[in-house]
Amino acid sequence: MVPPAEPPETLLPETEPDLGPTGRPWPELPEPAPVTSHGPATIIALCNQKGGVGKTTTAINLGAALAETGRRVLLVDFDPQGSLSVGLGVNPHTLEHSIYNLLLSREVGVDDVISASNVEGLDILPSNIDLSAAEVQLVSEVAREQTLLRVLEKVRPRYDLILIDCAPSLGLLTVNALTAADKVVMPLECEFFALRGIVLLTDTIAKIQDRLNPRLEILGILGTMYDPRTLHSREVLERVVQAFGDTVFHTVIRRTVKFPETTVAGEPITTYASSSPGASAFRMLAREVLARCHVA
Question: Is residue 62 predicted with pLDDT exceeding 90?
């Protein structure tokens, strides 16, 4: 008796990888492990000499998302405009001491300046317009490029991550931030002029690596203010990925009205609109940052 023929094997179609906004498959990002002890901190500078690209928004919300994972985070407002301080509900005009005093006075201790935010595990070193005078006053100091590093070394053992919100320039303050940092994140507005500025910034970083801080590494380029509805946004992001490859974060921060609202409220988006797409994006970015820093 002839056995019945086996039915032909049906091949299941291969599932297409889930592509993110950068056109690359999303990586497997582990859930951040709980922290049993703190420090020493990885110092990350958020830097771009072009203004209005989302440095301050990124610093506040990335810091809050990292704090949600149980990390202790210090935000350093290193911009004389004091936008980071305002974004966390600190009035820069009523500060008795700011980071300016830490840079130029030995009589003020770091604990006199650090203040807690309304997010557990997130502290801030505030700034105000006084910091603009530091650029001139530091010129005559010995080892002027290491001034911020000397301040942060005192608190490094207490924190897991320190984020520096840089001023929109490539002056002495930004050089100080890059000299103090282990890593640099470059927020990039998905717009053509911002793309040109990244090239100039990478040249500056190379000089800092050669002359002042050989341990400095580019952690990643972060696309911000992305609007997938516009061809220009999509083209700029595509060109950035073509030019810089895996240096570009998979997470992209989309343009949303929620971010200006959080500034008025004086709190990060993770508490102001916890379930919003913007909050989810920064939580995903926090995972990417921890994975790239090898501290996940």
Answer: yes
Q: Which residues contact 235 (CB under 8 A, 6 or more apart)?
A: none
Contact status, residue 120 vs residue 268, Cβ threshold 8 Å: no
| Tokens coding 258 | 């929620």
Give the homologous superfamily in CATH for domain 42-292: P-loop containing nucleotide triphosphate hydrolases (3.40.50.300)
Angstrom distance (rounded) from CA 41 to CA 266: 25
Pairing status of strand 115-116 against strand 122-125: antiparallel
Mean pLDDT in residue range 59-75: 92
Is the pTM value of this prediction over 0.70?
yes
Which residue carries 């807690």 as its tokens? 116
Sheet with 73-78, side-by-side order of all strands: 115-116, 122-125, 73-78, 161-166, 42-46, 183-189, 217-226, 248-254
Q: What pLDDT score was predicted for residue 118?
A: 86
Q: Distance (Å, rounded) from C-alpha 72 to C-alpha 64?
A: 10
Tens-place pLDDT, residues 213-231? 999 999 999 989 888 888 8
- Bridge partners (DSSP) of residue 19 are 25
End-to-end, the C-alpha distance of the chain in Å comes to: 63
CB atoms within 10 A of CB 81: 19
